Amino acid sequence: QKEVEQNSGPLSVPEGAIASLNCTYSDRGSQSFFWYRQYSGKSPELIMFIYSNGDKEDGRFTAQLNKASQYVSLLIRDSQPSDSATYLCAVKVGGFKTIFGAGTRLFVKA
Amino acid sequence: ETGVTQTPRHLVMGMTNKKSLKCEQHLGHNAMYWYKQSAKKPLELMFVYNFKEQTENNSVPSRFSPECPNSSHLFLHLHTLQPEDSALYLCASSQEASSNYEQYFGPGTRLTVT
User: Fold this and answer.
1) Taking the mean position of all CA atoms in its chain, how far away is CA B15?
2) Which residues of B touch A (CB under 8 A)?
3) pLDDT tens across B30-48, in order?
């Protein structure tokens, strides 16, 4: 059974701090990794994707991938109350299938 | 606005009813997906269509029947559902399913089975 694991949270950080969200996956052959944000009552929206080991930065967001450790993370710098949401890690496990983690709830305190 | 629309947004149906969910994407994509999202559970992939061909059926009960008449439209036909089928049903699309393209989600249909 291919799995994607995330800490369910909630993760609570003060406004302006760095929020660190983590994800591990079981399929060593996975090639592409995605972070989605889902506000309560809304559908998931893509934040970032990463394919190669290392860091990828986009504005306040940085995705980090370590395939040897089967670990992917999302850092949110200068966290804002509007970042409060559930963050879903998704892993393309080969073929046509993408597996999602259960998500981490982030709460940014003003 | 993500370019993926779903109707209806809310649906209440009895266990003996037949209904259909509709999804349409305006992004020129070639792959479409159905997911089920239940409270406190991960998104569950149900079906994948790539260039109108079904490529994944994730052991979904036969009371859910997908249809993909073209690359822009996807339906989920529902019949004799159970209360545990109550959930948010999300449609998504991507450029194609076999490569590493990201998916774009519709707003979902909130289904309640009574």
Assistant:
1) 19
2) 2, 31, 35, 40-43, 45, 48, 50, 55-56, 58, 90, 97-98, 100, 102-108
3) 999 999 999 878 899 999 9
